[in-house]
Amino acid sequence: MKLSARNILPGRIVAVTKGTTTAHVKIELAPGLVVFSAITNEAVDDLALKVGDAVSAVIKSSDVMIGK
Amino acid sequence: MKLSARNILPGRIVAVTKGTTTAHVKIELAPGLVVFSAITNEAVDDLALKVGDAVSAVIKSSDVMIGK
Amino acid sequence: MKLSARNILPGRIVAVTKGTTTAHVKIELAPGLVVFSAITNEAVDDLALKVGDAVSAVIKSSDVMIGK
Amino acid sequence: MKLSARNILPGRIVAVTKGTTTAHVKIELAPGLVVFSAITNEAVDDLALKVGDAVSAVIKSSDVMIGK
Amino acid sequence: MKLSARNILPGRIVAVTKGTTTAHVKIELAPGLVVFSAITNEAVDDLALKVGDAVSAVIKSSDVMIGK
Amino acid sequence: MKLSARNILPGRIVAVTKGTTTAHVKIELAPGLVVFSAITNEAVDDLALKVGDAVSAVIKSSDVMIGK
């Protein structure tokens, strides 16, 4: 499946923390460049996400702000 | 101002395209790693965004999905 | 690629309207059940979206509110 | 109150799971077509959401991606 | 219809600007406190939004960041 | 850092509730006008957010719906 989301950034999972319903996953895109994702625990289980996995951070362009 | 957003990714603007109300801005985080942002034209004017500017892509972690 | 997004709703495109930078796409999930999507023109071109295409509406669960 | 959100999809609640702060609610729009929502526990309490309730899933069109 | 969104902020429209597909609407919540909204042109037409209208800005709590 | 987000609403924190991974923070913008924010626990710790702090609610205009 190809996505309309303009940002599909490949990386590797460096941390997975599950909460009661919401999980936090950290993805390293490049050395020192880490993206933080908050998803459902169900998604973590369904995709069997774990440290070391090759994944992509997927972000809709309307969710990207700019700071200058 | 320090932000609660967990993703503040530094880069450089490589493209700015203004529409009638919505603008598209591309930010290069690293060679070949470009993030696409859709913001208001007013924001582009207010921040005087132009190609070459050092900026950050700011993304709330609840807006980051994962693909595997 | 499998996604963390919990909502991947299959349907068929019934309308595509491109603006200057933002496009609107309507997807029929079931007879009379239409989902409205606002994406970039670039995504419409990249995926070659047109009326009749079989596609999925992809929605992160944190973007779904409830009205009662 | 009428909403600007273009997606107001009627259905019935089939599951409510409360976490520590975030709750997950599943809404069946049609047989086999279930939408997953992550909202605050406070919203679940305030709307007294429970299995069997007739509700609508409310989604802003800028939060709908397309996969093809 | 009662909403799960925790932020329903009453105000008055002070500006409406339609683009090709996306419109911008400004809502004054209190003297000098203006909220900016980007919605579809279709929503502006459907709700017949115009300057002076009493409306509410509706925002999901997961879309509110904090700066300090 | 100046932000593209069009809504940067100054106020004062009136409540902080941490969950397992997600925290809820309430910000009073004006007497009786409270904004509810759901952010990560890490952000609460990183910004040392506590009741009484002068902060801003930061909201992207594409995340603001309108009810009439």
TrEMBL record, chains A, B, C, D, E, F:
GO biological process, one term: molybdate ion transport
Keyword terms: Molybdenum
Keyword Lyase: no
Pfam families for the chain: TOBE (PF03459)
The keyword Cytoplasm is annotated on this UniProt entry: no
Coiled-coil regions, chain positions: none
InterPro entries per the UniProt record, alphabetical: Mo/tungstate-bd_C_term_dom (IPR008995), Mop_domain (IPR004606), Transp-assoc_OB_typ1 (IPR005116)
Domain Mop: 2-68
This protein's name: Molybdopterin-binding protein
Originating organism: Bradyrhizobium sacchari
